[in-house]
Specification:
Helix content is about 35%, strand content about 20%. It has helices at about 15-25, 30, 105-110, 145-150, 155-160, 175-185, 200-205, 210-215, 220-250, 265-275, 280-295, 310-325, 335-350, 375-390, 425-430, 450-455, 485-500, and strands at about 40, 55-75, 80-90, 95-100, 120-130, 130-135, 140, 165, 300-305, 330, 365-370, 390-395, 410-415, 440-445, 460-465. The strands form three sheets. Strands 11-12-10-13-14-9-15 form a seven-stranded parallel β-sheet, with helices on both faces. A five-stranded mixed barrel has the order 2-3-4-6-5.
Length: about 525
């Protein structure tokens, strides 16, 4: 018997090494998690017309003809020639044809691939004299003749609809070699105890794990396949959620400095000076974040909302609450353009509240510093000094904030804008700059994330959403130009961008690759 953790019991060392080198498969469990990517029925023929040159494919087709020919090739330096047999087999799916060419054992292949035979053929698609072909393909014939001759019509129909798994394969490991290895494992498999209790399985109508694993590789029908997928998807989600729950518990167990609101601090003064009224969503999310910041364990929250929904104001209020409590806040942006935009908008919003120690500064005020890769030497030295001494309550920057020379007096809150542009290690590098305790973390995104995706990808984060736009704000208009129509409409796209900018609005242009910009304009994926 073999368990999921056992090495592959495939007998040959070369075969096991091939599975490990090609797919990273080392154990029985690894192999059984190498699920089929699609399923054929025995009566189904592959659309050969869709094959593309260079693709490694597995096709199901019927033999139309098989012929034996001879060809000559150079053999000796003196120009001598040698004649060798060549097998040419034509297979069809009823609408298109494909040539199979064999140079070794030609007679054997012609005898095996007789007219009317149906089989699976795997190889790399190439073109020779205008015809698509597979050279030396691997193949496995399906015994349809025996079925037709020896079974009843009902049994034959059942056989014809049996599902054949097709696995992700390579030139070194064909789909049916993988299928044969899976069958060897299934014959000796000891799955062990099901990790899901029976009452949970009954409540959610889930198959036992062993049934699901066997059915995903050897389904009797489409219904079996659906039930197997349902159970295996549940397992993947369960494991992911369990891991994220452990991460959340571990984070909650870490100490963090509580940063409660100060009734007469900078944050309160900021609210009184705001030239507009906060939306209900901004107020609600702000209260939730304020409570999180007051806790003795680190906040980990995702704030999502459309461009223009007011995420920056919510983040500023949170940063000021931390500053009032004696801490500092860092805002990490993915590009210099966005970092500078945040610096200008935040200093404009704060006004005198961002001018501590300067003429015209408010009684309760702090400083806002900017640090990017292009920051000049004097400005960089000033920003680093203000961060180290604590004079700058808010430090805004790009990846430059992650440098070792950047040190904080008391980093209490990390705000990350467009969080999908940063990796986990980058976020941790900034978070590790806090001294003594973990800082609170607020990540923001303008990309709408469905609840199910948020639970899976950001399961260690609490999620808040700003669903409404501030009063008087025009709704966001998104326009997609299909790739096929881009040359025709590209000039109109740029004209609309110029019109929006001329009207004092913003336009965000996402280019799929360099070279798509208009002549004379260099545009990446930043704000224009």
């Amino acid at each position: 018997m073999a368990t999921l953790r056992d090495p592959l019991p495939l007998g040959g060392k070369k075969t096991s090494e091939a599975f490990e080198k090609v797919f990273g498969i080392r154990t029985v469990g690894d192999l059984l998690r190498h699920y089929p990517r699609r399923y054929y029925t025995r009566g189904e023929l592959t659309p050969l017309a869709e094959l593309r040159e260079g693709d490694h494919v597995t096709v199901l087709a019927r033999v139309e003809s098989a012929t034996l020919a001879q060809y000559s090739r150079s053999r000796f330096p003196n120009g001598g020639r040698k004649t060798t047999d060549r097998a040419e087999v034509t297979v069809t799916d009823g609408t298109a044809t494909l040539t199979l060419t064999f140079f070794g054992g030609a007679g054997r292949h012609v005898r095996a691939l007789q007219r009317g035979k149906i089989g699976l053929f795997a190889g790399t698609v190439s073109t020779f004299r205008g015809r698509r072909q597979l050279v030396h393909p691997e193949y496995e014939l399906l015994p349809v003749d025996a079925v037709d001759a020896e079974t009843t019509a009902e049994a034959a129909a059942e056989y014809a609809t049996e599902l054949i798994p097709v696995y992700p394969a390579s030139a070194r490991l064909s789909s049916w070699r993988i299928s044969q290895a899976v069958q060897v494992v299934l014959n000796i498999l000891d799955i062990g105890e099901d990790p899901l209790p029976e009452e949970v399985r009954q409540q959610h109508d889930l198959w036992p794990r062993e049934m699901a694993i066997r059915a995903i590789h050897r389904p009797q029908d489409r219904s079996d396949l659906q039930r197997a997928r349902k159970r295996l998807k549940w397992d993947e989600a369960f494991v992911m959620q369990a891991a994220l729950a452990q991460r959340r518990m571990a984070a909650a167990a870490m100490p963090a400095m509580p940063r409660p609101p100060e009734p007469d601090g900078i944050a309160a003064e900021f609210d009184r000076r705001l030239p507009f009224t906060l939306t209900e969503g901004q107020r609600f999310v702000g209260e939730v974040i304020a409570r999180d910041l007051s806790c003795a364990y680190p906040m980990n929250r995702l704030l999502q909302g459309e461009v223009g929904s007011g995420k920056t104001v919510v983040a500023v209020r949170a940063m000021l609450q931390v500053v009032d409590a004696g801490g500092q806040a860092a805002l990490l942006a993915p590009t210099e353009v966005l970092a500078q935009q945040h610096y200008r908008s935040i200093t404009a919003l704060l006004g005198p509240l961002a001018s501590a120690g300067q003429l015209g500064g408010a009684e309760h005020a702090t400083r806002v510093a900017l640090l990017t890769g292009s920051t000049g030497v004097r400005a960089r030295r000033s920003a680093l000094s203000d961060a180290f001494t604590g004079d700058a309550g808010i430090l805004i920057g790009t990846h430059a904030l992650l440098e070792d020379r950047v040190q904080f007096a008391d980093l209490g809150l990390v705000v990350i804008d467009e969080q999908h542009r940063f990796g986990v290690e980058q976020r941790d590098a900034l978070r590790d700059k806090a001294v003594g305790s973990r800082p609170h973390v607020l990540v923001m995104t303008a990309t709408p994330i469905p609840r199910t995706v948020a639970m899976t990808v950001f399961g260690d984060l609490e999620v808040s959403t700003l669903a409404e736009l501030p009063a008087g704000r025009s709704p966001i208009a998104t326009h997609v130009v299909p790739a096929a129509e881009r040359p025709r409409y590209l000039e109109r796209v740029w004209q609309r961008v110029r019109e929006e900018i001329a009207a004092g609005r913003q336009a965000y242009v996402v280019c799929p690759r360099i070279g798509d910009e208009a002549p004379g304009e260099a545009v990446g994926d930043d704000a224009v």
